[in-house]
TrEMBL record:
<feature type="region of interest" description="Disordered">
    <location>
        <begin position="1"/>
        <end position="24"/>
    </location>
</feature>
<feature type="domain" description="Pyridoxine 5'-phosphate oxidase dimerisation C-terminal">
    <location>
        <begin position="188"/>
        <end position="230"/>
    </location>
</feature>
<dbReference type="InterPro" id="IPR011576">
    <property type="entry name" value="Pyridox_Oxase_N"/>
</dbReference>
<keyword id="KW-0560">Oxidoreductase</keyword>
<comment type="pathway">
    <text>Cofactor metabolism; pyridoxal 5'-phosphate salvage; pyridoxal 5'-phosphate from pyridoxamine 5'-phosphate: step 1/1.</text>
</comment>
<keyword id="KW-0288">FMN</keyword>
<keyword id="KW-0285">Flavoprotein</keyword>
<comment type="pathway">
    <text>Cofactor metabolism; pyridoxal 5'-phosphate salvage; pyridoxal 5'-phosphate from pyridoxine 5'-phosphate: step 1/1.</text>
</comment>
<feature type="coiled-coil region">
    <location>
        <begin position="155"/>
        <end position="182"/>
    </location>
</feature>
<keyword id="KW-0175">Coiled coil</keyword>
<dbReference type="InterPro" id="IPR019576">
    <property type="entry name" value="Pyridoxamine_oxidase_dimer_C"/>
</dbReference>
<dbReference type="InterPro" id="IPR019740">
    <property type="entry name" value="Pyridox_Oxase_CS"/>
</dbReference>
<dbReference type="Pfam" id="PF10590">
    <property type="entry name" value="PNP_phzG_C"/>
</dbReference>
<dbReference type="InterPro" id="IPR000659">
    <property type="entry name" value="Pyridox_Oxase"/>
</dbReference>
<dbReference type="GO" id="GO:0008615">
    <property type="term" value="P:pyridoxine biosynthetic process"/>
</dbReference>
<dbReference type="InterPro" id="IPR012349">
    <property type="entry name" value="Split_barrel_FMN-bd"/>
</dbReference>
<dbReference type="GO" id="GO:0010181">
    <property type="term" value="F:FMN binding"/>
</dbReference>
Length: 230
């Protein structure tokens, strides 16, 4: 069989059954519209996403890479906090794949995709663990089952069957029985991605998208903004 005959092409379909890819027509982006701070710009775009009823706009792909192999892994997580220090997600940092990646390579990337607005935001930079004291306030907002689950799950480790996980949960439930205040596990907490690059992407027709890159310059917290070719 020829390579052509076995090839599967997953080109996106357009409107009304067209074989042409759907065009992005919902907006444009000029440098005059951008705030000098990528954090303020992200906050504005995130609020636009909420107002446009984007489904779970806090959903973001976290990408990490293990060294020395260079193997990259990515997963969907939730953005929980942001300030001028960076973007914070929460997870298990004892047994997970991302924990192993970060222990060997502090560099990480985040990618937001808001289909309803035809917008994308990319973030790249080193990351750092939050302390238990910093992580406790968010942990306390989680429902009890999720707090117990953080203790019980040895994330990414092999399970023989689901009953093994359920037994781990029962052990934790017994440990914290009648205890509403539960400490954050020492192996669980926040990870802050401290951006050195942030890109704002607005879809345009014919794939001639508007792209602007913020790059951190020096140690003074100044940002350089450049338009990128699509």
């Amino acid at each position: 069989m020829s390579s052509t005959a076995s090839k599967h092409i997953f080109a996106p379909g357009g409107a009304n059954g067209s074989s042409q890819a759907e065009q992005y027509t919902k907006g444009s982006l000029e440098i005059s519209q951008l705030d000098s701070s990528p954090f303020k710009q992200f906050d504005m775009w995130f609020k636009h996403a909420q107002e446009a009823n984007v489904y779970q706009p806090e959903t973001v792909t976290l990408s990490t890479a293990e060294l020395p192999s260079g193997r990259v892994s990515a997963r969907m997580v939730y953005l929980k906090e942001m300030d001028d220090r960076g973007f914070v997600i929460y997870s298990n940092w004892g047994t997970s794949r991302k924990a192993k990646d970060v222990s060997s390579n502090q560099q990480a990337a985040l990618t937001f995709w808001w289909h309803e607005l035809e917008r994308q935001v990319r973030v790249e930079g080193p990351c750092e663990r939050l302390t238990s004291e910093e992580s406790q306030p968010y942990y306390d907002t989680r429902i009890r089952g999720s707090r117990l689950g953080a203790w019980a799950s040895q994330q990414s480790q092999v399970l023989q069957d689901r009953s093994e996980l359920e037994n781990q949960v029962k052990d934790v439930e017994k440990r914290f029985e009648n205890q509403e205040s539960i400490p954050v596990p020492e192996f669980w907490g926040g990870l802050r991605v401290k951006p050195e690059m942030v890109e704002f992407w607005q879809g345009r027709p014919s794939r001639l998208h508007d792209r602007f890159k913020y790059t951190l310059v020096g140690d003074g917290g100044e940002w350089k903004i450049e338009r990128l070719s699509p």
